[in-house]
Amino acid sequence: MRIRPFEEFDVNTVKDFTDRTVGQGYYSLEELKEKQKQSISANGNICSFVLEDEKGRILGLRLAYPAGNWDHGKGSKLRPDLWPTELGKTGYFQSLFVSPELQGQGWGPKLSQQSLKVLTTLGNEGIVTHCWKESPNNSSYRYLRKIGFKEIITHPDYWVDVDYICTRDGNPCHCTAIEMHLDLRENRP
Fold it and tell me: Where in the chain are the domains?
């Protein structure tokens, strides 16, 4: 297994992975192409990473964007007025997915640490994310708290405007997001 930057040539394989792992159509092919481009900083550093096995299969993904390359997450609710860092100096963690057979083995944190290193090197002062409140065993929230993220505000029905059938209940998604912030000035990877 190896962790490496999410490159343009990975888009089709990442689409297959997200369709299997997250749900059919959570990301369109065009959206993933855009997300891959968004993850590239002005100086060419890639902030998003994939987990690849020895056969070249993608088994994990961390989407992350440097400050200035994003304006909101999958939903549109965002409260930068509540953050300790300025929007223009804050990166974004969009999604972290690990194949079910590898969950609980530390690959999610390893993917995130790679993104954190790049974002810190680029001078980002903070990172914001929208945590899935209904994640199994509250794993998303617990994981983010463990690496230093702090809760900012809760957004009910965060994904309601996303044309997506929720894997939780098979209906259009009405899950809740917890907007969270990591102050990189205090928490260095």
Answer: 2-183
Residue 92: is its pLDDT beyond 60? yes
Residue 29: CA atoms inside 13 Å, Cβ hemisphere, count? 4
Give, in words, the CATH class of 2-183: alpha beta
CA dihedral over 140, 143, 144, 150, signed as positive or negative: positive
Q: Which DSSP helix (H) or strand (E) runs through 20?
A: helix 11-21
Amino acid letter, 83: W
Residue 165 to residue 84: CA distance in whole angstroms = 34
* pTM of this structure: 0.89
Count the Cβ atoms, other than its own, within 10 Å of residue 141.
18
Structure tokens at 182: 């990591």
Kindly state the average pLDDT of the residues 109-117.
95
Give whole-number Cα distances, 153 to 48, 78, 115, 141, 179, in Å. 25, 9, 23, 13, 5
Which contiguous run of DSSP H or E holds residue 5?
Answer: strand 2-5
- b/e for 144-174, b at 16 or more Cβ within 10 A? beebbbeebeebeebbeebebebeeeeeebe
- Can you give the pLDDT at residue 188? 58
